[in-house]
Amino acid sequence: MKEGVFLRRNKKKWEAIEQETRNVSSVHPDRLGEIFIELCDDLSYARTHHSNSPIAKYLNTLTARIHQTIYKQQNIRFSQIAQFWTRDVPLVMVSVRKQMLVSFVIFAISCAIGVISTLNDKAGEYEFARGILGDAYVEMTLQNIKEGKPMAVYENKESIPMFLAIAYNNIRVAFMSFAWGGFASILGVYAFFFLSIGSAYILFVNGVMVGTFQTLFYKENLLWESASVIWLHGTIEIWSIVLAGGAGIVMGNSIFFPKTYSRRESFRRGAEKAGKIMLSLLPFITLAAFIESFVTRYADMHVILKLLIILGSLALVVFYFVIYPFIVEKREEMRKEQEKIELPSVELNR
């Protein structure tokens, strides 16, 4: 194709693209990608057949501008993702530490209720445990204990289907703990003014179950054998439930206590904070499901390996959700101090 024909066929298209991308940052990324592909095709043809012509130089300049914008937007996206994990979530955790403490206290008290109630169960009958965990589960556990395989429940399923089922269940429980806080608060804003009842209830139920389950093994003289296996995955799993419950309380309290904001604005802010917490929990919940499906089944692994996994999991969640937020908060305070502009002193002429 001659240069003149090539120009006539594409001139209007290039002019339209130039006009459309005059304010290139306002163009939708998908559309920007389409334009970039079109220009690359035209530039490739121009360089092949008319390498020294003004058309090739023009297309090269236009394409380079689009490419720089796309690359810049990609860098912004990556930096935003990094900022979410290294700054946004930690700062949210600092701002909601009271609600998280409430969530932890509710869970701890309910866990203690499960422990005390199971300890008072009649030997061998486990009436309370059956009411909480279900007859079938208690019978299965007792049967496994008699057979000398107390942790057999983790060994009887294939790893991948078990992982998918557990991950789904853990995410469902965490989101129930989160969502019911806001839902119950909306329904009961006048009737229940001091607690996010939904999240508190989910925390209470799960706390009682954990206390009951662990104490059942204690009464069967299998406390260490059970704890060293259950907490391989349970360390991250339980922390996730507590944090999800705290997120629900954050969202619920944003309606109860709007402070200087309207209820709608306060709820929007609370939901944004809670949503960030829930999003940050997804990798941890998935990790707990992976450990339960692929690691916990090896109940006879060496005790040192068990302790490394349990203590490593505990260190991970405590550092990221408790210690690191205070480090980030301190860093932000120092940055704001450095950014303060000192006003020069001015002597007034009398």
TrEMBL record:
Regions that span the bilayer: 100-119, 171-193, 200-218, 238-257, 277-295, 307-327
Domain of life: Bacteria
Assigned keywords, A-Z: Membrane, Transmembrane, Transmembrane helix
Designated name of the protein: Integral membrane protein
Lineage: Bacteria, Pseudomonadati, Bacteroidota, Cytophagia, Cytophagales
